[in-house]
Structure formats: C-alpha cells, structure tokens
Amino acid sequence: MMIVFAQILAPIAEAALGKAVYYDPPYTRSACYGTQRETMVVGVKNNLWQNGQACGRRYRVRCIGATYNFPGACTGRTVDVKVVDFCREPCNGDLNLSRDAFRVIANIDAGNIRVVYTPI
C-alpha cells in the first residue's frame, strides 16, 4: 500500500511553479544543439540551466493562470517540451517556450503565464 502511495505522489513532489513566456520562430539557433528542427522546445532560466546540464531534459507544462489580468488565458491542456536553449537575463519567465508550445497551453495574447512544470 505504501509503495503505491509513494508512486502516486512522486510526480507531484517534483512539480514546480513558475512563469512562462514565448518566443517566435525560427527555433534553429540554440545553446544546446545549434541547428535543430523540433518545435516543442523551451529555453530555461539560469536556475534550471545548470551550466548546460539541462540540455535534452523534458518537461510537461500546464498553464494555471495569467501572470497579469487576462481572463481565459489557459486552454486546460498540457504540453511536453525539450530543453534546447538558455534564456539569458532579462528573461521574463522561468520557461521561455516556443510559440508553438505556448499556444497549446495558453492564449498567445496572454503573453506571460503562471505554470506548473514537471520533469518527464
């Protein structure tokens, strides 16, 4: 019983709260891979970057609300993204999602959203 309970709670314990913004294509120049063709990608802030060790990590991201007053910002969906870049200061979010990834979870016009993200 305890093992099952621990397996259910493990992903919850790893979830983090943060802010996400987006950037426009092309997504071809990245700190991790240079030229790459994936579109469900993310750049991360220094605290997640860990001197490049974040390259290739994957996160499941869900919008939980607008950072600023924007009713209906979230779509209710999640998106899985791969870390391909570093978001240099001033980075307005913990996660700098590709526009393609951002629009899966939020209205583009919201611009800056609050998210829950979990390593996958």
From TrEMBL:
CDD domains: DPBB_EG45-like. GO terms for cellular component: apoplast. PROSITE patterns: EXPANSIN_EG45. Keywords: Signal. It comes from the Eukaryota. Residues 1-18 form the signal peptide. The keyword RNA-binding does not apply. Residues 18-120 form the Expansin-like EG45 domain. GO terms for biological process: systemic acquired resistance. This is Expansin-like EG45 domain-containing protein.
